[in-house]
Give the backbone structure.
Amino acid sequence: MRLCYELDDEESAAELIKDQHLRGFFSDSTSFNILMDMLFIKGKYKSALEVLIEMKNQDVKFSKDTYVLAFAICYKLNSPEAFKICTTLREEALIKGEVLSTRASCFAVALALNQNQVEKAISIFSQIMKPESIICTNLNIMIHIQSNMLKTLIEILKDATDGTLSKFVKKHEFSEEVLAKLREKVKDVPTLLARFDELYEKLHTNGQVTTYTLDALLCHTPKDRKSHVVLLNKRTVSRRTFQPLSQSLWAE
């Protein structure tokens, strides 16, 4: 698996994971997580789901990172089947007493919204302990949009532009894409549209609007958790032997 990782060879890694003769050899989540991450970054979501299912079939314990990857894969597949898998895994995790990360929950909320399961999205979102992140802020807006809670949305934007807040209080930031969807919703209600446009200008003036889409925000890798594949693409020598990757690894 280390060799496959260094050579960026997810196909061989997948064959190893699924090899019945090696069943039980990959006994923890690390190898599965690495492979799913490699496949996810390359957009091979169906293959990543197959690895997830294989992991579950082998009764390998899921880590917090596994749940993030699992829900992210299901979010990208965005199908009724993927939604069912995500929901089932989440419910099983909660029954076991697992504490799911905010990031994992955000993928689950986004998938529920994409599948028009608004009540489910609301339920999952309500269980996020600290919904102050930019992702949570924008998911909350999407929930209100799909729930047609337009007046409440205007109040949320009004509170976000409150100039009386301390400079030490982090201001909410909104995706341009999400705000465009909100404007589309209120365009036929003149009073709300006028109020929205006013608040929209204030948000821009305050630097509270980002060009990142909701999908980009969800899939963004935090600086302290850079993907091993991204790092791999930037280097051409082994981190241990300092020889060219292919030469060094095949020699080993």
User: Anything to note?
Assistant: The beta strands are 174-175, 209-210.
